[in-house]
Amino acid sequence: MERQRVIQSPVTQSTGVFAVSLEGEFDIAERARVLDAFAQATTWPVIIVDFERTRYVDSTVLECLVALGRAAQKRGADLVVVGLRPEIRRIFEICDLQRHFEIRATSSDVIGTLGTRETDVYRMSLVAEPSLEIGNIEAYRTEVSW
């Protein structure tokens, strides 16, 4: 089944916080969308990946997260993972990823520690659930907000 991709122009920023929220179920079919979102995050000094509304991830998404972590580390940026539900946390533990990422309860924890206002955080939400079906094409939506 073919999926519609929403491609945003790259966002570049030298200061601030970029928060990506993954909502729904993410597997290999969502790889390109996850990579697009993570690519936009790579220029920011603080990156938050929020799994609070994530119901499922497979190794493809974890691979993308590890690549984002390496890119952030290479630039001296901070990558923080937040909102790990018990089933997602278990996957992190099985893969021993908790050793490689700073994990916090919520994005507000990270933002509060930085002294940044919530309104100054660039937010992107990827939603991996069909929003409508036209013939054999499922349309997925990407929400972007400041």
What would your notes on this structure say?
By secondary structure, the protein is an alpha/beta fold. It has one domain: 2-Layer Sandwich (Transcription Regulator spoIIAA), CATH 3.30.750. Helices cover 31% and strands 36% of the residues. Strands 1, 2, 3, 4, 5, 6, 7 and 8 form an eight-stranded mixed sheet that branches. A hairpin with a 2-residue loop joins strand 7 and strand 8. The N terminus is likely disordered.
- Kindly identify the CATH topology: Transcription Regulator spoIIAA
Could you give the distance between the termini?
A: 32 Å
Q: What portion of residues is helical?
A: 25-40%
Low-confidence runs: 1-13
Labels describing this entry:
146 residues, alpha/beta, Transcription Regulator spoIIAA, 8-stranded mixed β-sheet, 31% helix, disordered N terminus
Topology:
Blueprint lengths: L2 E2 L12 E10 L4 H11 L4 E5 L3 E4 L1 H17 L2 E5 L3 H9 L7 E3 L2 H8 L6 E14 L2 E9 L1
Helix pairs in contact: 1-2
Characterize this entry briefly:
The protein is an alpha/beta fold and 146 residues long. The chain contains four helices and eight strands. The model is unreliable at 1-13 (pLDDT under 50).
